[in-house]
């Protein structure tokens, strides 16, 4: 059964800060819809417990400009509002706010606090709008690797075919010379070369290679 992590929130006129207190989160998945539906799932803890949260935010948001940073101690989200304005509360509807959703007083600013500074948080994490772009880059890289691997296989196959043709040509040349000069050494080499070509189909040419090398050096 999944658990609910503690969630803290604060706002400015144009954005909402959502902090999910979850240390060493793994396999974190965060989704934000334009209608304000915010969902998060992750595992954490030594037992690998599953944590999930779904928030129906007070109003619509700009998911393309929103950002997320998954840190060691928490998951911090900067949610851009679709329209500027101060929300009366984080969630929509008249239902009671869940016990795990609390105000983040460290980042809070009131409506009359003009020019309130944004919290000093490293936003070097992911961008909601860049998730699809990252997936596209991974796909393109995978396709490039597949093409490269296919090319390597083709080059190896072509080289092998060329070598077989060369070996067959050498066998034919040796047979021609043997027929003219009746050289015993060349006759023996031609026989072994032909035997080697026949064994190529059985993928057992190692012994014949040593025989050919020994005979050539004799």
The biggest sheet amounts to:
6 strands, mixed
User: What is the annotated CATH architecture of the largest domain?
Assistant: Sandwich
Number of domain units: 2
Topology as a string of helices (H) and strands (E) = EEEEEEEEEHHH
Number of strands: 9
Structural class: alpha+beta
Poorly predicted spans: none
Q: Count helical runs.
A: 3
Determine the CATH topology of the largest domain: Immunoglobulin-like
Strand order of the largest sheet: 8-1-2-7-6-9
Helix content: 25-40%
Classified by CATH, the class of the largest domain is Mainly Beta
Ends apart, CA distance between termini: 78 Å
SS strand fraction: 25-35%
The averaged pLDDT comes out at 78
Instruction: Supply Rg.
Output: 35 Å
List strands and helices in order, with pairings:
Elements (H helix, E strand, L loop, with lengths): L5 E6 L3 E7 L4 E7 L4 E8 L4 E8 L4 E10 L3 E8 L19 E3 L22 E2 L3 H51 L2 H17 L5 H12 L1
Pfam families: CS
Family: Belongs to the p23/wos2 family.
InterPro entries: CS_dom, HSP20-like_chaperone, p23-like
Task: Summarize the model shown.
The chain has 218 residues and is an alpha+beta fold. 37% of the residues lie in helices and 27% in strands. The chain starts with 5 loop residues before the first strand and ends with a helix.
């Amino acid at each position: 059964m999944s658990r609910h992590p503690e969630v803290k929130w604060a706002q400015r006129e144009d954005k909402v800060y959502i902090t999910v207190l979850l240390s060493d989160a793994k396999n974190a998945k965060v989704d934000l819809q334009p209608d304000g539906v915010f969902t998060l799932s992750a595992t954490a803890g030594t037992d690998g417990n599953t944590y999930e949260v779904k928030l129906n935010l007070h109003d619509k948001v700009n998911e393309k400009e929103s950002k997320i940073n998954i840190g060691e101690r928490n998951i911090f989200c900067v949610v851009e509002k679709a329209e500027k304005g101060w929300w009366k509360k984080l969630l929509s509807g008249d239902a009671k706010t869940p016990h795990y959703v609390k105000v983040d007083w460290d980042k809070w600013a009131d409506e009359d606090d003009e020019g309130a500074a944004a919290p000093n948080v490293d936003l070097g994490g992911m961008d909601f709008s860049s998730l699809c772009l990252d997936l596209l880059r991974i796909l393109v890289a995978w396709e490039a690797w597949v093409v490269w691997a296919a090319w390597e296989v083709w080059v190896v196959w072509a080289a092998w075919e060329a070598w077989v043709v060369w070996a067959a040509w050498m066998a034919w040349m040796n047979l021609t010379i043997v027929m003219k000069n009746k050289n015993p050494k060349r006759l023996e080499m031609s026989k072994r070369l032909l035997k080697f070509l026949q064994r190529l189909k059985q993928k057992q040419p190692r012994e014949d290679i040593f025989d050919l090398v020994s005979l050539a050096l004799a």
